[in-house]
Amino acid sequence: MLSALANPHRLRILATLKAEGRSYVSQLARQVGISRPLLHLHLQKLEEAGLVTSQLELSPDGKALNFFAVADFAVHLTPDLLVQAAATLSAKTE
């Protein structure tokens, strides 16, 4: 979850979804100002981390739209959690 939140694009996506309620991919890409393929990558990471949810719906004209919304989540940081997160970081090479 911390890794997903560490990316500025993902923070903007979460902030936009929180402000707008929910949005489908094309609309969200325009709102955030990134390409749809890049948005898909970030949404996948956010969904894997449990930070967003998605729901596939049909529009009135029959198009399939994947709507995303912010999931109800809370992050409680503790020293132990930070130690666990640090253990997942790659080693620094010099």
TrEMBL record:
SMART domains: HTH_ARSR. It comes from the Bacteria. Residues 1-85 form the HTH arsR-type domain. InterPro entries: ArsR-like_HTH, AsnC-type_HTH_dom, HTH_ArsR_DNA-bd_dom, WH-like_DNA-bd_sf, WH_DNA-bd_sf. One of its GO terms (molecular function) is sequence-specific DNA binding. This is Transcriptional regulator. It comes from Nitrospirillum viridazoti CBAmc.
